[in-house]
Amino acid sequence: MQRFRDSATALSSGQPCDCLPPLRAAAEQLRQKDLRISQLQAELRRPPPAPAQPPEPEALPTIYVVTPTYARLVQKAELVRLSQTLSLVPRLHWLLVEDAESPTPLVSGLLAASGLLFTHLVVLTPKAQRLREGEPGWVHPRGVEQRNKALDWLRGRGGAVGGEKDPPPPGTQGVVYFADDDNTYSRELFEEMRWTRGVSVWPVGLVGGLRFEGPQVQGGRVVGFHTAWEPNRPFPVDMAGFAVALPLLLAKPNAQFDSTAPRGHLESSLLSHLVDPKDLEPRAANCTRVLVWHTRTEKPKMKQEEQLQWQGRGSDPAIEV
Length: 321
Prior knowledge:
Strand order of the largest sheet: 4-3-2-1-5-11-7-12
Mean pLDDT: 90
Distance between the termini: 92 Å
Order of helices and strands: HHEHEHEHEEEHEEEEEHHEHEH
Helix content: 25-40%
CATH class of one domain: Alpha Beta
Radius of gyration: 33 Å
Shape: elongated
């Protein structure tokens, strides 16, 4: 500013003045400002970058969900609830295995209406392994033959009675999860397990007399297990608390569940053939989030139904419940 005053004074006094350099500098500053304004306006007009797209479903490893089921009053209700959770998960194949001599219309119809990719399997639990009326569930572990039947199918030993009958082709990338029909599952759980390389693990809520059971993790590795009952088991985990990479299962053709395993050791009877505890892969934020709950539907009380049946006025048996 002083230079402009000096120039004005020089002009008014008739002295020669070098006015061009400060004028040129001022013009350059204005040009740079205009240029920056134009750049900012162009950035504002530019559309925002597209969000990162998730992988196409065909690029995702398939999740093979193995569910044993057996006939009882709440069977359809349990399977409808589970099927509708599974329908939210992309790239999923449901292996539903009935404990029966032959496929039942109820399960066949439910699978056909589910909209899911499925394989329907059937195998009857041997009489010696079946629970008798009034026996607690721990006397004989339920679902052993059914889970092993699903493993046989995955290994190409056939047996499908409905749905997809061909097993996964060699080289298929996938993961196998054993999902009982009475548990409650978060959709997030399936994405946690999808990229399992060996055996992945996470906590399970409302099990073992605790708020949750699950692996204890330090530095990204499993170092122990939070459990109250028989903590020295090789793998003190619930059936809902782990998933196995399909290639690993196929590479260990003799790995299966042992129906004669001691109480609480059924999971260990399979996992002991597949992985060392130190190599388990913690999921669900290093096993700090519960995404599956060991819920059980209360057995319905049918006292009024029995009375009406005795009177010849029972509910119409043709209506499927």
